[in-house]
Amino acid sequence: MSTERIEKSDSAKPGLAKSTTPGDVPADAAKDDGTPVDPRLLVREEGFAGYLTEFKRRMRGGELGSVPVIVGLIVIMAIFQAMDDAFLSAQNLSNISIDIAGPGLMAVGIIFVLLLGEIDLSIGSVSGLAGAVFGVLAVQEGMPEVPAIILAILVGTATGAFHGFFFARIGVPPLVVTLAGLLGWQGLMLYILGGSGTINLDYDGVVVKLTTYYFTDVAAAYGLAAVAVGGYFAAAYVGARRRAAAGVPSRPMSEIIMRTAVLAVLAFVPAYVLNQYKGLPLALLIFLVVVAGADFVLRRTGFGRRVFALGGSVEASRRAGINVDLMRIAVFAVSGTLAGVGGLFMASNIAAANQSAGGGTLLMNAIAAAVIGGTSLYGGRGSSWSALLGVLVIMSIQSGLALKGIDSPVQYMITGSVLLAAVVIDSVSRRTQKTAGRA
Question: Transmembrane segments in this chain: where (predicted)?
Answer without folding.
Answer: 64-83, 95-116, 123-140, 146-168, 175-193, 213-235, 256-274, 280-298, 329-351, 357-378, 385-403, 409-428
